Amino acid sequence: MIDEAAYNPKRLFILETPVTLRTTQLLLILFLSSLSPLSLADHIKINNAWIREAPPVSKVLAAFMDIDNHASDTVYIIAVESRDFGAIEMHLSKEENGVARMLPQSQLVIPAKGKLMLKPGSYHLMLFRPQKRLKKGDTAEFTFTLGNGEKFTKSIAVK
Ligand SMILES: [Cu+2]
Q1: Would you kindly state where each structural domain of the chain is located, as residue ranges?
Q2: Which helix or strand (DSSP H or E) is residue 119 part of?
Q3: Which of 64, 73, 111, 150 has the fewest CB atoms within 10 Å, i.e. is most exposed?
Q4: CA angle 82, 85, 91 (to 5 degrees)
Q5: What's the pTM?
């Protein structure tokens, strides 16, 4: 015997309508957002990025790059993540009383219309627990989170 409630085409229609509306709204939102001005992340360009090759046994690697900020506001990078590493920290190498130290940073500050250079002996990303062996030429994908919550990704090669 057929369950009439389940096969009632009107009921199906009623059930489907909100879904269709939601899809239309979503498409509209996507369309409108494609027309909106550039997001903050679009003003951030990462150049000369590289991961320093390390011995296979190494549990920690470092990444360096130039972070250019074309926006007229200061931009803060508050987190960097990658599925290729167990954890990533933002560090600043500093010599204090003749001792080289690495100071974890809660954020990287990129001045308006300026740049922050991550380089050996200075700011860098500390990459803990690589999830795969990274040889010269291999790449890892990084997700950067800005202070306003925006995210962008960047693929960086081992050199
Ligand atoms: Cu470090």
Answers
A1: 4-35, 40-157
A2: none
A3: 111
A4: 85
A5: 0.76
* Residues, Cβ < 5 Å to ion ligand 1: 91, 102, 126
pLDDT more than 90, % of the chain: 73
CB 156 within 8 A of CB 65: yes
Averaged over 89-94, what is the pLDDT?
97
Pairing of strands 108-110, 75-81: antiparallel
Looking at domain 40-157, which CATH architecture does it have? Sandwich (2.60)
Please state, in angstroms and rounded to a whole number, the distance separating the CA atoms of residues 76 and 74: 7
Distance 129 CA to ligand 1 centre (A): 13
The continuous run of DSSP H or E covering 15 comes out as helix 9-35
The CA 121 to ligand 1 mean position distance, Å, reads 9
CA of 12 to the centre of ligand 1 (A): 59
What band does 56 get if pLDDT is binned at 50, 70 and 90? confident
Question: What distance in Å separates the CA atoms of residue 49 and residue 155, rounded to the nearest whole number?
Answer: 9
Task: Select from 59, 78, 50 the least CA-distant residue to 127.
Answer: 59
